[in-house]
Design brief:
Elements lengths: L2 E5 L3 E8 L2 E8 L1 E6 L2 H10 L3 E4 L2 E5 L1 H10 L4 E2 L11 H14 L8 E6 L13 H11 L3 E5 L2 H9 L7 E6 L3 E8 L2 E9 L2 H7 L5 H4 L4 H33 L9 E6 L8 H12 L5 E6 L6 H13 L3 H6 L1
Parallel strand pairs: 1-8, 8-9, 10-13, 13-14
Antiparallel strand pairs: 1-2, 2-3, 4-6, 4-7, 5-6, 10-11, 11-12
Length: 325
Amino acid sequence: MSIGLDLGTTELRSVRIVGEELTARRCRAAYLVLRDSPGHRRLLEHIQARHAICGDDLVVFGDDAVECGSMLDLTVNPLLRNGRLPSADPVARQILALMVEAVLPPAERFGSVCCLTVPGGYSAQGDHQSLDVRFLKQLVALRGYNPQLTSPGLALVLTELASSSFSGLGISLGATNCEIDVVHCGRSVARWSTAGNLSELSEEFPADGASAAKNTPIGVLDSQQAAWERVLLRMLSSILSEARAALVEEGSLRMIPQPTPIACNGGITTAPGFLRVFEQAWQQSAWPIQIGRVQIADNPNLAIARGCLIQAIMEGRTPSERFAA
């Protein structure tokens, strides 16, 4: 059984094939610390919340933490601040291990391939000795898998650009990290990554104002949307310009066909008006290639995990099976 695992800053996700269907698991990367009391224990038992006992505290994690926090008017803690593992915090790392167990079932066959992405923009090739990456790979190995690192951009191309022979640009606009992969025939030939703050943009200018629209004049909504798009355009133009300079100098852009298809993913891509702003930012950043269609992932929550699964299936095959595939 091969499996794809996307360890994101805001959520952990896995996708595998069970029978003839895709099965997914998800767990929000958040936790809540409660005092170990009879009342809190009854509450957690009532809502069947996933939790652990840590000393004199009860630690609730995932969506259950958000639900409990709302009921008790308490603040939920993000587990992976800025996409980085908590340092010098053994309790937080224990919680992370529990979350990985929640989304990653034990391997049916020891050594099955698990392709995974890791948070924080770590390089799939250059960070094998990173303590954080080694820790995450160890968590996967403890479940019986052979962990193989991949990148979000490559996973996106594998998921969204099958009709383009798995060639094009994979652009992942994560909450805390943005990256672009140049992919040719299912192989990443170049990669660029930078820290980003698109999550702050979502909080400052909430693009989905459906809940507030009932009591807000149309003119005010239009003004808010325009302001949000101006900020997004400035941020995307900066990201794309920086990436263009690095990738043009690297030289691999010459390998991909033109017009070049693009697969794009991230929570920000679901916002109204995103595609229009992205195309404007692309023109402003003056890339030396002509783009074809821009494919926004149909299922942004699971697109990267699905791409990881595709690569895991290919990695688990013999060379002759890969060639036939």
